[in-house]
Amino acid sequence: MAYSEKVIDHYENPRNVGSFDKDDKSVATGMVGAPACGDVMKLQLKIDDNGVIEDAKFKTYGCGSAIASSSLVTEWVKGKTLDEAASITNTQITAELALPPVKIHCSILAEDAIKAAIDDYKSKNA
Amino acid sequence: MKLPIYLDYSATTPVDPRVAAIMMKYLTMDGEFGNPASRSHRFGWQAEEAVDVAREQIADLINADSREIVFTSGATESNNLAIKGAAHFYGKKGKHIITAKTEHKAVLDTCRQLEREGYEVTYLEPGSDGIVTPEQLKAALREDTVLVSLMHVNNEIGVIQDIAAFGEICRANKVVLHVDAAQSAGKIEIDVQNMKVDLISFSAHKIYGPKGIGALYVSRKPRIRLEGQMHGGGHERGMRSGTLPTHQIVAMGEAFRIAKEEMVEENERLLKLRTRLLDGVSDMEEVYVNGSMDHRIAGNINISFNYVEGESLVMALKDLAVSSGSACTSASLEPSYVLRAIGRDDELAHSSIRFSIGRFTTEEEIDYAIKIIRENIGKLRDMSPLWDMYKEGIDINSIEWSHH
């Protein structure tokens, strides 16, 4: 299957691979997917006192499109408030990376990862 | 060294230059382009003679009589003709068929069609090494069993089944035995005198012949009858109508001749290369070989690199042409059914890569492959949350994953 240039770029030069301390109160962690399905995404956001995402990191087990989707969202969420980040949709990701129909689930997973991270942050700081 | 390196010989092989040279003599006006079925002029006679020679060469590789070879378009058609042809012909005797879960889709899908026609099919489940035992076959036989279809060598994991043992059982019970030998012909010995097989499917393009041509061995002693699936001019004794493609048949014959001549030597060379490849990667953590190592053809090795997803690995190994058991590319998202059938869990199935080496693989290519596999497994594991969890000692199966 042919990948778009953007997918290949993110795959070969993934942005923001890594981890933050998940026990840090300013860190939001979202882990979605399942190994049996062939993809697991871990997205971590570092959130400042004003509720703005100052940094993001990811680790992903999955196909090239899954890796590219998570790499892309780490770029997109930086500098956004939690509400702004929560409004990122899978269709935006699909469009940006020109994902084929069989890979749309990768973009859905990336959207879910953002939401899961925000939920984690809210429950931690409730 | 030319990149990318071709390590997918189980998918198809390049045509051997010796084969291509002969094939080209049967196409143009100054070559032998005649229709082998034309009886009224020398164009036809010479084409027929060329087909006869090829038939002999193919029969030679398996110790058969040339009259037992029926040309088809490839192993898929041979499997269809054998299974449907025998099931339909012997359908009055019974409607039970036995096959295995790890068979090629050309066998499984044909059996599914027969189920829709009212036949009943038992799918044997091989052990974790990929092997079906003679005892399993014996236990599955019934009064109304008319056909057993089991492959010689598996296309994904390269394991070799004990066909001679299946042959004994089937012959003793007067059940027709069909063997898909697409992945074994020219790679390991096939002797129809010793193996007691009734029907065998062959493909040319897996052993350095052209695509689009194959054959079905149909035993004469005992005489096996088939209902033709392709109707027309009654070619191939009514079992498969259609003008014989002389150039492809001649090429297949030459490919089989070369295979017979060079098989032993080639196997030694391939085994060395495969051992080199496996030794080069097996000291990494969490690396698993899929399928038996004791009963396996020399050219195949199927490895799961745990915590790395197969499709992303294939993408990383862009200088290597390999296949993955991860079906992330397919709409179903189901990983390899062969690996699932031998009890591999989904994660390991998703992490599998098939390397198949062949006639033109070099030591230099294997060394380069080892180098980039090692580099990329490291890179992808550094990116994998599952690898982190494994390193932290967290059991991945203890986590409640959200299946999507």
UniProtKB/TrEMBL annotation, chain A:
InterPro entries: ISCU, NIF_FeS_clus_asmbl_NifU_N. This is Iron-sulfur cluster assembly scaffold protein IscU. Coiled coil: none annotated. It holds the Pfam family NifU_N. Residues 2-125 form the NIF system FeS cluster assembly NifU N-terminal domain. It comes from Psychromonas marina. Gene3D superfamilies: 3.90.1010.10. Belongs to the NifU family. A scaffold on which IscS assembles Fe-S clusters. It is likely that Fe-S cluster coordination is flexible as the role of this complex is to build and then hand off Fe-S clusters. The lineage of its organism: Bacteria, Pseudomonadati, Pseudomonadota, Gammaproteobacteria, Alteromonadales. Transmembrane segments: none annotated. NCBIfam families: iscU.
From TrEMBL, chain B:
Pyridoxal 5'-phosphate binds at A75, T76, N155, Q183, S203, A204, H205, T243. The modification N6-(pyridoxal phosphate)lysine is found at K206. Its EC number is 2.8.1.7. InterPro entries: Aminotrans_V_dom, Aminotrans_V_PyrdxlP_BS, Cys_deSase_IscS, Cysteine_dSase, PyrdxlP-dep_Trfase, PyrdxlP-dep_Trfase_major, PyrdxlP-dep_Trfase_small. It is found in: Cytoplasm. Pathway: Cofactor biosynthesis; iron-sulfur cluster biosynthesis. [2Fe-2S] cluster binds at C328. Keywords: 2Fe-2S, Cytoplasm, Iron, Iron-sulfur, Metal-binding, Pyridoxal phosphate, Transferase. Pfam families: Aminotran_5. It catalyses: (sulfur carrier)-H + L-cysteine = (sulfur carrier)-SH + L-alanine. HAMAP family: Cys_desulf_IscS. Homodimer. Forms a heterotetramer with IscU, interacts with other sulfur acceptors. NCBIfam families: IscS (TIGR02006), PRK02948.1 (NF002806), PRK14012.1 (NF010611). Belongs to the class-V pyridoxal-phosphate-dependent aminotransferase family. NifS/IscS subfamily. Master enzyme that delivers sulfur to a number of partners involved in Fe-S cluster assembly, tRNA modification or cofactor biosynthesis. Catalyzes the removal of elemental sulfur atoms from cysteine to produce alanine. Functions as a sulfur delivery protein for Fe-S cluster synthesis onto IscU, an Fe-S scaffold assembly protein, as well as other S acceptor proteins. This is Cysteine desulfurase IscS. It comes from Psychromonas marina.
